[in-house]
Amino acid sequence: MELFVSANDAKLVRDAGRDVFPAGTGPDTLSLIDLDADPPAVLATVDVRTSIVGPPQAVALSPDGRLAAVAAPTSYDRAAAALVFHDVLQLVRFDGEHPAVDVIELGSHPQAVAFTPDGGRLLVTTVSGTLIVFGVQDGTVTERQRLTLSDGRLAGVGLIADGSAAIVSLRDEQGAVVVDLTGDGAALRPHRIATGVSPYVVDNDADGHWAVIGAVGYAGKESRNGVSAGDADLITLVDTSSVPFRAVAHAAVPSVPEGVAISPDGAWVAALCMAGSQLPSDHPGHSATGSLVLFANNDGELRRVGEVATGAAAQGVVFSRDSRRIVAQLYADRCLAVYAVANGGLADTGVRIGVPGGPASLRRG
User: N or C: which end of the chain has fewer CB within 10 A?
Assistant: First the structure.
């Protein structure tokens, strides 16, 4: 089995570029999905709290598939007509007869989550600029450390394949930092990685050679004097084969690359872009569809090789273990779409995996 987890936000609906909260939508959920089933199958669905508001890495699955972490928890206060942000981490256990959910109070709203490759640690980024490190042993999750990385919000986190380091994006402060994980505790390395504006999602290959960081531009900032006009944004290819890690290429993509991913073999980079599909129809940057863009990684040079239209307000994207398929979350369509890397380009397989809500965060186990 090739397992994925998708966190699905049922309460917020994107309607013609506007956020609405209709009554009776049901709870947010976590879906455990087997991509190798024919057709791909949803193995379990669990009620959780999550949100489209935040990087689409607010979910993670442990390497043994027994434990999932879910972040970005929100609820909607209908009386106040406001979204409520909760400061808790949710742990979903799949090792019993029925999935069970535990809740850990954090004191800060969590953003992205990731397990180390050996499953021994769980990293959580927060909006307060703190990285929280948990130890994981025999299903028990214990807080070990809090490491302040920024005065602003943190966003995505990606792990080097051997577990020696993590890359964390600094959404407000710009760029990304590297956290050393080789010792008993986590430690901040001195070198920063250059990125575009509002760095967001981070992904790594399976060999420890490459990483990719997406930047969502001015759409990811709280601007006082204007709004995003649907400008092109940037993704960044990072060489992680030696220390210090270095940005070696930037590539322009359609606006708001909400999800980015690098294939396990390091040969391909995918950017899942809103491309104006999140904007109202009367906005000059509006588009009816989003866009999935594929790049070939030619030893540190990004070459654009394919692009397909996707559903509106798309979110997370991941490659399959064999680097031949791409799974993308189509938020407005309430499904996951499967694309193929074929003949040096992109092809839509037509496979769709329905979920009970707008799919907002995605990770492969």
Answer: N
Q: Which residues, 6+ apart, have CB-to-CB distance to 262 below 8 Å?
A: 203, 204, 205, 210, 211, 212, 268, 269, 270, 297, 319
Using a 10 angstrom Cβ sphere, with 0-12 exposed, 13-18 middle and 19 or more buried, the burial of residue 185 is: exposed
**Residue whose token pair is 């979920």:** 355
pLDDT at 62 over 90: yes
What's the CATH fold of domain 3-221+228-364?
A: Methylamine Dehydrogenase; Chain H (2.130.10)
Question: Residue 206's beta-bridge partner residues?
Answer: none
Lowest mean pLDDT among 31-40, 61-70, 149-158, 226-235: 226-235
Whether 315 contacts 322, CB under 8 Å = no
Please report where in the chains the tokens 């769709």 appear, as a residue: 352
Distances (CA, A) of 287 to 236, 255, 314, 324, 347: 24, 11, 12, 28, 21
CA distance 283 to 261: 29
| Residues 278/311, Cβ–Cβ less than 8 Å | no
Cα 11 to chain centroid, rounded: 19
- Quote the pLDDT of residue 15: 76
